[in-house]
Amino acid sequence: MIVLYHYEPSSTSSQKVRLCLSYKNLVYTSKNINLECAEHLENEYLKVNRHGLLPIIVHNGNKIRESNFINEYLDKVYPEKSLVPKNAVDFNFMQYLCKQQEYLNENCLRYYSYISSNRIELIDNKWLKEHPQLDRRKFLRLVKYGLTKQDLHEIDNYLINELNFINSILEKTLALW
């Protein structure tokens, strides 16, 4: 049995795992943890994941964390419909795209997620002082008190350049198929 703890609709990491589960036609129990209500910082969820991060799956009593690792785990346990290319060059390219997605998510998209969903207003002193992960506390303080228009402009430009670069690679790759 697979239990997925995730946030729907706006967690890109959760979306990756839901896409994998769907692609592999796997049945799972959904536990939607509302980030905007800080359910990920409540004691009940912290018993599942002491860092308060999403997503996580519990499969046969085992906790598997981090979206890319969850997808790799599911691919090993359910290999019938593989996520991974057999060719070594294609496999390396897939790893690169996964790494870039993580980087862009952590360093660019996360800011917009907080800004566009008005989660900045929800950041309170408890989040700033008690979030289980140090890097998240630093991020929350930055979003709440220190993000300038210049910062957002730099994030915009970086994100646009990277997405254009990835798009050009994908266009070339898809043309070969």
TrEMBL record:
It comes from the Bacteria. Residues 1-82 form the GST N-terminal domain. SUPFAM superfamilies: Thioredoxin-like. PANTHER family: GLUTATHIONE S-TRANSFERASE OMEGA (PTHR43968:SF6), PTHR43968. This is GST N-terminal domain-containing protein. Pfam families: GST_N_3.
